[in-house]
Amino acid sequence: MPRWIRFALFLLLGLAAGLVYGWVISPVEYVDTSPEHLRADYRADYVLMVAETYASSRDPQAAARSLSLFSPQPPAAVVFEALEYARSVGYASPDLALLQFLLTAMQTYPGAVP
Amino acid sequence: MKRVRRARVFSTLEGKDRLASRWLEPLLGLLLGLALGLWVAWGLAPRAQVDPSPAALRADYKDEYRLLIASAYAATGDLGRARVRLNLLADPDPAAALLEQSERALAAGASPQTVFLLSMLAGAVQQPAATSTPPDATASLPAAQPTATPPSFRLVVQQTVCDAALPAGLTQIEVRDAAKQPLPGVTLLVTWEGGQQRLNTGLKPELGAGYADFVMSADFVYAVQIPPSGEVAEGLSLPVCMDDETGGSYSGGYLLIFEQK
Question: In this complex, is the C-beta atom of A14 within 8 Å of any C-beta atom belonging to chain B?
Fold first, then answer.
């Protein structure tokens, strides 16, 4: 077997091993992420926390601010997405009601978050 | 004799070169390929680890997350859910992390309410868990429920407050523990015909850790209770107070004091 072919074969073997190790065995772990990269259930729970707080404080500006930290999307869109997820996985009725309450508030909230 | 020895020596060296060439080139190829593969996998086209948990959040977002957990806890009084949420952040000691954040907030000049919320939750999670089973961070979050038997409260004071300097209809509530000490983080339920509202003590720390208030409307009669089984302060409607100086009247308020049984 020509030397260059043998070299190329081992190069490819090493390449494959490196890819398997880097993609499968030890993939890049993301740290220092932002809330928008959270998994759907964590995102929904984040929005539920905002809804729980809003139900008590009735402060739409604070709620909108918390949601803006969470996602660049408009607050109402973030809540709508969370509500859809919550419905799909069967959140309890009181939690759905809180999310719906927050959604209504964010849909009518006029102010942009500073 | 010398020529023969030299020939043997050269022959041995050539053999070593062939041997080195035979194994060195593949080894170099393998290592080069491995380095290339790792560069592609980790640098050029990393395979995204999808769906990170709150533990992967940046430190400032973790602070926001903790504060939101504390705010939600103050609003709902649901310690079980707060514990589950704190576990998601994977802090080695959630209570210490809350206290440390409250100290940083205080030093940074954050609002007293922020400091109070964090401190209150830190104090709550330092208490023994209601069950021997640790909260399961992978459980469905909204399904998590505390199983502790909630304390019961009795109404020890219900009196009209006539003070023209206070807002009309202001109902001031103080909640104390069995040792008559102010009790923060207690959820009160205010009900009226066709509506209800939850209040939490301690959200106005300048007025006391066990303090909460709300303003009554002239159109409704209110009842206040610490759910689920506390005594009820009922029949609360705007009291009419007389102004001794002018002889006129104005709307007063109430003072309610609940004490843990």
Answer: yes
Gap between the Cα atoms of B225 and B240, Å rounded: 23
Q: Which of B143, B169, B203 is the last residue of a domain?
A: B143
At B206-221, the pLDDT tens digits run 677 788 888 888 888 9
- Whether ipTM tops 0.90, in short, is no
Alpha-carbon distance of B64 to A7, in angstroms, equals 54
Verify whether the Cβ–Cβ distance A49 to B85 is below 8 Å. yes
Instruction: Mark yes or no for CB contact B37/A91 under 8 Å.
Output: no
At A56, list the tokens: 């008590």
Do B229 and B159 belong to one domain? yes
Asked if B58's CB is within 8 angstroms of A28's CB, the reply is: no
End residue of a domain, out of B110, B143, B176: B143
Distance of CA B221 to the CA centre of its chain: 34
- Is the residue at A97 inside a domain? yes
Range of the domain at A46: 35-108
CA angle (B241, B245, B249) in 5-degree steps: 25
pLDDT in tens, B91-142: 999 999 998 998 898 888 888 888 889 988 988 888 765 443 333 334 445 5
State which residues form the domain around B23: 1-47
Structural domains counted in chain A: 2
Most A CBs within 10 A among B17, B27, B51, hence the mutation to make, goes to: B51
